[in-house]
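Morning run. Coffee first, then this:
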Amino acid sequence: PSVPLRPAESQFDLDGDGLSDLAEFVVGSDPNDPDTDHDGILDGESVRTGTFNQPLLRAGIIAALDLPGEAQDVVCVDDKAIVALGAEGIVVANVFNRMNPEVVAQVRVPGEALRVASSGSLVAVACGPAGLAIVDVSDPPASPITHTVPALLLGGAAQSVVSVARVAFVGLSTGGLATVDLASGSVLQQLPVGTAGPLVDL
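And here it is:
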């Protein structure tokens, strides 16, 4: 049916979410629920930032965080985002409150933090010629480096990393792949992949 249009100032906002009842009708949100999609963000702000969970609306930025370096890679686990910052090491950010993320730890690692991967609370950091660093982020303000694995033991400089079930798969400058036990820091296996150059991503 046709939709009658009226001046916006004549509109009510019964649930106080920043969208008039007519606007809620147009976008399909509930005029009696200030957070229709239950994402912790009021409908008005969700619509303005493009994060309202409707298939016709695109996602958008809901928050930003200043970091002490240039982000190279990021991995999220539980309510934490771990960001590789090159020469600045890694930062652990608490993203539990998506509207107000905060840095809770910064860890300097040997060399430069190029890539990060996480398996539970253990974070593997590819540090180029300095090898692999393993950081425990179970207590973010402490976040100790539990193990370092030199490039010599890996079989090349650590260029990239992914992890699963507490095993890190490390892409090397030689084009090979090394597997490392995150709990002990032991190299489990070295595998030639046969690429002509370094494995810069996995």
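The longest helix spans residues 21-27. Good start to the day.
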